[in-house]
Amino acid sequence: MEKNVLLTIGYDGTGFSGWQRQPGRRTVQGELEAVLSHLCRQEIQLNGTSRTDAGVHALGQRASFSGNFGIPVKRIKKAANNLLCGGQNSRLRCADIVITEVKEVPMEFHARFDAKGKTYRYVILNRQEPDIFRRNYCYQVERKLDKEAMRKAAAEIIGTHDFACFQSAGGNPRQTTVRTVTRLDITESADDEIVMEITGDGFLYNMVRIIAGTLVEVGSGMRSATEMPEIIQSADRRRAGHTAPPGGLYLKEVYYGDSVGKF
Amino acid sequence: MEKNVLLTIGYDGTGFSGWQRQPGRRTVQGELEAVLSHLCRQEIQLNGTSRTDAGVHALGQRASFSGNFGIPVKRIKKAANNLLCGGQNSRLRCADIVITEVKEVPMEFHARFDAKGKTYRYVILNRQEPDIFRRNYCYQVERKLDKEAMRKAAAEIIGTHDFACFQSAGGNPRQTTVRTVTRLDITESADDEIVMEITGDGFLYNMVRIIAGTLVEVGSGMRSATEMPEIIQSADRRRAGHTAPPGGLYLKEVYYGDSVGKF
Fold first, then answer.
1. Do A22 and A60 lie in a common domain?
2. How many CB pairs under 8 A join A and B?
3. Residues A226-255: tens digit of each pLDDT
């Protein structure tokens, strides 16, 4: 009997050329498909929700696959994680990908097309001294950032807008550049971290990193929060700020309909 | 005029085959010597205090070098860190080595031979779920550890003993295996971390990792704290516990005489 399976996946993006399978490169999709194909004894193709770039991390990426395979769904998580760690089930090694949840879903479910929204996290380390242990996990900004100015600018981004100004060239063609951002929080955490969390119904190519770069420029006084409506209205990528580096970005959560997850 | 220079160095050991220079391998000493030789326009040889193994980290490694070079000592830190980051002085990249302090010391000073003591930190992640982002920075132990039992065992280690039982084969030959441990603290930090800090006048090969492995076995109930004096007295490596993995270990601080740092 054919089954359709949805995975929740975390990964440290540092050692990967991004999510998407590419010949001769280590990618998250490529590693997972190799392991799942071995377990299912057939060629498995994963539909990932978000094609994260090289260096981008995930706490809750989702991907689905279907097939007529023998392994019980409830055995996949442990078996796949074991193979991802090199098959030794060793306490001394831990892989840079982990499957945190596996569940069977209706045959018509598709991890990407059925996603109703996502939350991304972007982590800024706001201090002068670099932290060598977090160099791949945050964006270090030396100049003290004005969080209140960043929050004011963030408030202008929330809502339904044409976000063409926050889109890099090079992504897949989109029918429309209109998206709805329902939440954009700027919080301070321990150790000089500033964490931006953004929830929306969809994101354009590099949108979160360009928003992060633009908010950093607002926070450092290079531009004013009051410019934001104008930047958005211009629909001009050159009016927005720089693209913040990939290591600060985390795909945190993907939302589906009621049957699989709430939005 | 010849100068003698002492560096304080932090590094993420993940991407290195340890401290010591080895042909064809990326090592901390090798990277630093290349950068310093370039800046000083002569072959620089570093004397490191501790030859940390592959995967072991440092917060405060020390190393000294001498020579008759033109670059002012106060310019070395910034210039070397810039070169370590690939010479771009870019805010977007951070190296996995950082020089945190540079100072001129008397010509007779030697970073290794003059060290009066060191503190190492060992970080245990005591929880069931792996943390992919910390997999190279701590030792994950799934079984809930009894910190009180670990502290009792630690108290038996403090003092002057023949620590041959905590020495791996393969290190440099030592005149004596007697060392003095002046402090061994077990603290709990946020996020299910157990942090062991050990200070002593010197450490045998793998001594800190074997002590960490032995304390983990005590904490998990596999052996009792009361066995410790017997294990030490046996001077037998096979009586002690396993060697905990390198990623949990950090060289935290090196102590010199009053002129360079207190013990």
1. yes
2. 50
3. 999 999 999 999 999 999 999 999 999 999
Tokens of B218: 């005590």
Please report which confidence band the pLDDT of residue B31 belongs to, taking 50, 70 and 90 as the band edges: very high
pLDDT digits (tens, 9 = 90+) for B47-106: 999 999 999 999 999 999 999 999 999 999 999 999 998 755 444 456 899 999 999 999
Q: Which of A8, A14, A32, A92 to mutate to test the interface with B (most CBs of B within 10 A)?
A: A92
Range of the domain at A105: 3-114
Query: Catalytic annotation on B258?
Result: no
Chain B CA closest to residue A140: B91
Last residue of a domain, one of A67, A90, A114: A114
Position A87 scores a pLDDT of 59
B238 contacts chain A (CB < 8 A): no
Spatial CA neighbour of A119 closest among A72, A184, A31: A184
- Residue B220 in any domain: the answer is yes
CATH code where residue A52 lies = 3.30.70.580
Question: What is the least distance, in Å, from the CA of A2 to any CA of chain B?
Answer: 31
Distance CA B44, CA B49 (A): 16
Q: Indicate yes or no: CB of A130 within 8 angstroms of CB of B94.
A: yes
DSSP string covering B18-57: -SS--TTS--HHHHHHHHHHHHHTS----EES--PPTT-E
Is the same domain home to A130 and A141?
A: yes
Report percent pLDDT > 90 for chain B. Answer: 87
* B133-181: pLDDT as tens digits: 999 999 999 999 999 999 999 999 999 999 999 999 877 777 899 999 9
Q: Is A88 exposed, middle or buried (0-12, 13-18, 19+ CB in 10 A)?
A: exposed
Q: Is B54 on the interface with A (CB under 8 A)?
A: no
Domain assignment present for residue B80? The answer is: yes
| Token digits of residue B3 | 């100068």
